[in-house]
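User: My advisor, Dr. K., asked me to get a structural model of this assembly before our group meeting. I'm new to this, so sorry if the format is off. These are the inputs:
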Amino acid sequence: MKFKKIIYCCAIVSSLNLGAQTAEKKTSHVNPFIGTGAAHGSPLSGNNYPGATVPFGMVQLSPDTRNIPDWSVASGYNYNDTTIAGFSHTHLSGTGVAELFDVMLMPFSGSVVKEEAGQNAYQSKFSHDKEFAKPGYYSVELLDYQIKAELTATTHAGFHKYSFPKNKEAHIVIDLDHSMKKSDWNTRVIASQLSFPNDYTIEGYRIITGWAPMRKVYFHAEFSQPILHNHVADGGNVYENAKIVNGNAIRAILDFDTSKEQEILVKVGISATSIENARLNVQTEIPVWNFEAIVNTADAVWEKELSKIKIEGTEEQKQIFYTALYHTFIQPNTLSDVNGDYPSADFTVRNSSKSYYSTFSLWDTYRGAHPLYTLLQPERSADFVNSMLAYYKVFGYLPIWQLWGQENYCMIGNHAIPVIVDAVLKKIPGIDAETAFEALKNSSLREHPGSPFGIWEKYGYIPENLKSQSVSLTLEMAYDDWCVAELAKKLVKIDEYNQFAERSQFYKNLYDKKISFFRAKDDKGNWIGPFDPLKYGANGGYPFTEGNGWQYFWYVPQDVKGLINLVGGNNAFTKKLDTFFTLEDKPEEVNDNASGFIGQYAHGNEPSHHIAYLYNYAGEPWKTQKYTADILKKMYNTTSSGYSGNDDCGELSAWYIFSSIGFYPVNPANGVYVIGSPRLKEASIELKNGKIFKVTAKNVSDQNSYIQSAKLNGKSYTKTFVKHTDIEAGGTLEFVMGPKPNKNWGSKLEDRPIN
Amino acid sequence: MKFKKIIYCCAIVSSLNLGAQTAEKKTSHVNPFIGTGAAHGSPLSGNNYPGATVPFGMVQLSPDTRNIPDWSVASGYNYNDTTIAGFSHTHLSGTGVAELFDVMLMPFSGSVVKEEAGQNAYQSKFSHDKEFAKPGYYSVELLDYQIKAELTATTHAGFHKYSFPKNKEAHIVIDLDHSMKKSDWNTRVIASQLSFPNDYTIEGYRIITGWAPMRKVYFHAEFSQPILHNHVADGGNVYENAKIVNGNAIRAILDFDTSKEQEILVKVGISATSIENARLNVQTEIPVWNFEAIVNTADAVWEKELSKIKIEGTEEQKQIFYTALYHTFIQPNTLSDVNGDYPSADFTVRNSSKSYYSTFSLWDTYRGAHPLYTLLQPERSADFVNSMLAYYKVFGYLPIWQLWGQENYCMIGNHAIPVIVDAVLKKIPGIDAETAFEALKNSSLREHPGSPFGIWEKYGYIPENLKSQSVSLTLEMAYDDWCVAELAKKLVKIDEYNQFAERSQFYKNLYDKKISFFRAKDDKGNWIGPFDPLKYGANGGYPFTEGNGWQYFWYVPQDVKGLINLVGGNNAFTKKLDTFFTLEDKPEEVNDNASGFIGQYAHGNEPSHHIAYLYNYAGEPWKTQKYTADILKKMYNTTSSGYSGNDDCGELSAWYIFSSIGFYPVNPANGVYVIGSPRLKEASIELKNGKIFKVTAKNVSDQNSYIQSAKLNGKSYTKTFVKHTDIEAGGTLEFVMGPKPNKNWGSKLEDRPIN
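Assistant: The format is fine. Below is the predicted structure of the whole assembly, which you can bring to the meeting.
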């Protein structure tokens, strides 16, 4: 795929007259097909999509390869599929639940046939040979119809270019019923409308309940050629040449004549608030019928964003790296319109002078993606935080998994807290610390689904018989509480500091010294047995969440030293880590989310992500280097199965970006990045303040993954972490790499990461 | 009940210091218990409720006697029930579907017990001995708790007064999950919130899908005493002393101490747009803690509205009459807030300088209720019409059955059309005729659910094999088309006039001369057999809608002369009417809506309502007098089963009001009222223009129901109809009644109603 991609890319780029700098472009290294399909025989895809989007946009215009996508095709697209059902305007990147898929268009040629309700008679075969994607642009040939479909996007609008054969029977389907399986998440289209204000325009909306309780999706679409006729079906009701149809299963076919002009362009504005705003969105962002101009703009916007890190390395590394960066910058998604209107948590429309964002997959993204945004996207980070604070104001607590501005309570913890604390402590401008603290505090005191703070404070742990997923909850809640305490400290709120600092130590209450594992207790304080550290839980009914006792054992990022002490010191700790990374035993049932194994380490899901970095805390950084290098090499590639699990809104991508540069935020809110094994020859991070922080890795190669020595700004550097303040000051961190461990480097007590 | 009511009423009224004119008050004749229960052994209730509301208000604060009301208790209250589940703020009056029931409160005393999800542990027994209702006020003693609950209302707010025993354990339940059965109409609470901004206030909302696709109901409630503690359950999740809870099955218990102050007052503002507006609504309308003042205001508002017709008659007649007038003035309901915000058909919030109304049960109310509004409520009639036109603007066609601003497509036809045409032709100020015509035309040309205009124009009738309920549809669509044609004529739109005038004659295409009935054809033009004119259809799967061939035979209000000609002249026509009113045969299965029989005439449902008046058209007005007098006497009484079927948003009430005065709008859009048998000694209609139209019936009694002679403004009057223009001019219509028919009066050709 890589080769094919380059060929295509050059052809396109030259046709866009982008000039001589083509070879240097970061966008040229992005391969949007990475992560779009599972490896053969595995159900686990990155769940990425190849379609067109711009950074943090509302619109993701992408092909859906299933008429009814399920969780295994959560992005709508599976690289191993062979048909395309249509092109819908909204998609999630890397999630484990299939949602959105709003306003699907599908061009076809030939005669119109009668479709039964729920049927899709106009799917087309496609081939990867005749498919191309780059940031902000996707094209495919619909083989059944000899139609070339090209897609591009702006923040709030999709732009389609369909090249039909010379044909009097050219059609475009518009489907307002297309969604994930209606039986999943009680999905139902509650109401929808399609209207034809004039021969060149359609408008409408759908109100749909599903993974998000209630989404309103409005659109305004303009066609470059007149609609000659329309056939609308709403379930069993059929309308010919309708002016307006209200229903809840609307699917329409629009007729065109391409016997003279073969191209049909379609501009589609999307809004979560009104048709008027959808119209305003598209008319603002796509004022003229210049498809190539929008492709170029999208490319330029991506180029600007991706250029925030310039790297040297192999083409494979560049492709993985810039695709990962691209995947992290896809979301959180703009939810507000160009005029600032957005759907508030209380189902009213409010207005903000700044962009209002949603798609907060926080259990995933607080770990690596949000620290990356704080570094590379400080202005947007402020907007993300302020969006969450505005949400808090009407909802009463911060988001957990927020989709289209609404809570779906997916996963555990309240990991908006580390995101906000990290942003405040890193002094991101534009966030009011007192307002933020109020939100943190209330989100940590007001009980809500998944957050039983009453029993938390009463027992000092979550008793499994009162609340399932108790061990994972206890560990993750303790971390969030540490974050609250840190901001309390900063704001000199003594009482709150004491309260939350105490809560942050509750993790110890579930440590079973006898077996040296965190394990579940009941509300009488009895251990719940028997305990099998290999046994997996999913999302309820077991003390561990999408993981097992081995994987969750390491989740004390706020107090690794405390964890080391619990285990019995550095040796015991590193020995346990050694076992973790080598214990191949697997229980009969592995959770769907567990994949990408190195021993019990499972890179395909987030609970493992920080673990390889923990050796540094116990004085054996070369083992961190060994395993992070291993993961970087084994768990990422440039194919459609390039991720070892769901990319989870860019979280697996963020891990790669940090780790390939050479460090990772084990505690995502303490301003410290723990050094692993740099894999890139060079990486220059351009900071908002104009400074550059460069990381180099001399002699780095697949074999040379051990740090021999390091210098920060020319001075010898033996610390196994780097502070955010050092990065912000600009400078150079130089590593010398070699094939064998330098076990001295970074091993001393003073070199170990600060908790 | 009547006796009891008067006793109570006097006691209350004197306590309110309403002064010496008490005996004259119209409100004193209103008995809100009429129609609240079915006669023993019958499922058919008026489906009215006894609670507190003001004319055309958003809030109907009324007791719910079932925890989960179903269609047989559509108003929430059944007089034959013995327990009260709580007091919710929104109710429908007289419908056949149970909906609304938003924001239920229930006081209780004693200890709090653990309720399972969906349970209601705090229902209380009540007795009609300790219950009282009058317009704008309801009270009941909750026998299980020795609590007196009193309710009053403003347009947008409910006001509760709970008198507890001296008790440290006083509680009020607030239930945001209370609704009709969740399995009916796919009812589901999609999201809801309950918050406690301070000790005296709760706020929140629920988003619910059900009979209306998606209703948003926001509230703001203030308590006169502090909430000492709260217990909130959201299904299985339980919260103590919550600050804010989001969920979808929220039910909370609030604790109070009534050991010193026994009264707890609660003001609750409701809004369909936002919490802010709910707060504004209640703070505007109930600024102070004066319960009696709001009771007095509600009473005064009702008195003003009810005084638009002053009648003389027996106390029983007055009670039936003023209760009927009260029932007609309950809806359509205000949906906009005090600041003009309202939920538009496209699920956005828009603003109007005039009130925006909903609850349009048009298949019922276009017949009698809307003509009554045009007469007595011309300003509101303009607002009703303009609300429908605003709705049309975003929805594409006029409402059919509009609830909480949304279409539920209940019943057939497009009977907003006669309502609008009637208002325009009667020159109600403030309606733009051209805008109205555009809405009528598009609503009659744009196909939509239940309105297959394509096949209508293609076949000249609705073929049953293409669309069920075809005979009823054909007859009712022809009538709506006649209305469109009338406005086209008025606006000199020749083409449209011709088109719709032609369509208005399509009824003839389903007349089967051989059997002299309207019957179904297929799309080949074949009669569908066998035909049994006694057999009932309900709402699909049969050519007739909630009726049989006998009942629908008479539905040509736009062309009764045409119908007479079809049958073969006046004698054949009146003979057929005679058979209709005397044919006692009933099929095995009578539709639920068929009740109140006189032969095949079924006064309990609307298709029959105009039929008794049709004798006038064929020169036998004395038979109209006979049967209308019969219906007035037999089908209405002052008990809880005082209606012979569902009151249907005041339609059965409107029939009584018109008919007891002496006339009825057989064609509700032609400005003509057909004279029946006046039952009141005197009725004075106060018109908006300041004029009075008085109708007197000398010698009228149960026996004296035949018109002997009549005078209009002192001159002999033999016409069997009266024109709207005559009424508007003011004047007196005097009847002299007697025990035997004067078969001469009104029998001449020139005396017959103009079509």
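One thing worth pointing out at the meeting: Chain B is about 25% helix and 25% strand.

User: Perfect, thanks a lot.
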